[in-house]
Amino acid sequence: MKIGIIGSGNFGTALAKVMSEHHDVIVFDVNESVVSEINSKHTNERYLPGINLGNNVTASKDISSMKDTGIILVCVPSKFMKDACLNLKSYYKNQIIISTTKGLSPEGHVMTDVIEKNLKCNPSNVLALSGPCIADELAYGKPTMVMLGGNKKVATTVQKVLESDHFLIKNTTDKTGIQLLGFYKNIIALLVGICEGLELGHNFESSLMTRAYNEFYSLNAAINIRRHTFVSPAGLGDLYVTAMSPHSRNRTFGHMIGSGMSMDEAKSKIGQTIEGYENLLLLHNMKNKSYIDKELINILMEIIHDGKDKEQIKQLLLKYLYDYRKS
Known about the structure:
The chain has 327 residues and is an alpha/beta fold. It folds into two domains: 2-173, 3-Layer(aba) Sandwich (Rossmann fold); 176-326, N-(1-d-carboxylethyl)-l-norvaline Dehydrogenase, domain 2. 50% of the residues lie in helices and 12% in strands. The chain is built from 14 helices and eight strands. It has helices at residues 10-19, 32-41, 81-88, 111-119, 135-139, 152-162, 175-197, 202-220, 233-244, 249-258, 263-270, 275-285, 294-305, 310-326, and strands at 2-6, 24-28, 57-60, 71-74, 96-99, 126-130, 144-149, 167-172. It has an eight-stranded mixed sheet with strand order 3-2-1-4-5-6-7-8, with helices on both faces. Helix 1 (10-19) links the parallel strand 1 (2-6) and strand 2. Helix 7 runs parallel beside helix 9 (233-244) and helix 10 packs antiparallel against helix 11 (263-270). The mean pLDDT is 95.
């Protein structure tokens, strides 16, 4: 099968490498230099250095290249999802389409809702992929297990096509749940990174992460997210890798802030979209905060935007734990 990938960032490129083991892959992106490099050198050094993508991966600046694919994976930052769908719409031929993006729309909708609304497509053909997915580990063939959420029959079909001996897929019908967990773990990773930057120890990091995850569970379990999803690869698994891996951009951004770097300096040094930070801004401005930990959001905004010194940050984080002790 020919697999289409929209977005040539590190994750989209890593998935292209994984999918190319058994399929031809076409990557769409508007970045002319990246497209040219993939086609001429079979590499994407800006986003995934050191990886040869092989002859089965090609790239195009023309979104119409997606029309002849059997499955499309959308790997763009959440703020670009609507535009990606509108650009694709004229060439979309009712293929199965999979969102790999871990974020929300400005209205607070998960990415599969954005796809369904803007493509006007059958919701059964729209799936979500989430789980422990550090890009360079995928590209180097290191094993993982991800979750594929959506219609059971469609997900089973996709599982048979995309799964390999190191890219394992577990299906779930909790399509919304795995996406809510996928975006919120980015917020928690910021928190853990800040704590690490302060050098307050793994005990403190673990305590903060536990409190934040517990709050999200209490607000959403059996309401917006099925209970068992919290302890799935898309829940606890994705939280662990994003909060603890040195390859996580969200954790790294938090670490830079905790170490004393300004927000603008940290963003510039990372040089890629930091979904956790984008999600934080979104949650802060959302009217409906019924399913998020408002105290955590306010603390992170105060730390990241107000330029607190290390002692002030420490006291804010300690208060967050003190409040948990009293609950």
